[in-house]
Amino acid sequence: MRNSPLADYSSIGDDKKSRAKNKQDRNMNQTNGLQTANAPPVVTPFPTNRLVRWSELREYLGISDAHMHTLSNAGQLPPFFRVGRTKFFDPSEITTWLASRRNVA
Question: Residue 81 in contact with residue 87, Cβ under 8 Å?
């Protein structure tokens, strides 16, 4: 009788189990053994301490100008103020706003 590689199916489940175990081990190593599934999200402060222009926030968030206007009209942007035609945001307000948005999502 000829030996076929398809004749023995017993190792198929073992391979999936070992891949799942390896993935779990990698995740544990990345978190130094700490379980972080229910940990609150960490928001890094906005990367500047000066006032942020409308266009800079838009580029940082990676959204279109039209979407920024939609968020602004809905009152879903952090507080801003105007100097002439330019809108400015406080970086600490941006950080707080991002933290509140991250908890919602």
Answer: yes
The pLDDT tens digits of the residues spanning 23-57 come to: 565 555 454 544 455 555 566 677 778 899 999 99
- pTM score, two decimals? 0.55
Distance CA 47, CA 102 (A): 17
How far, in Å, CA of 20 to CA of 26, rounded? 10
Contacts of residue 93, defined as CB under 8 A and 6 or more positions apart, other chains included, come to 78, 79
- DSSP-derived letter for residue 50 is S
Q: Which residue has the tokens 């100097």?
A: 83
H-helix segments, the chain: 12-30, 54-61, 65-73, 91-104
Residue with tokens 């190792």: 11
* Sheet architecture: strand order including 52-53: 52-53, 86-89, 80-83
CA 103 from centroid of its chain's CA atoms: 11
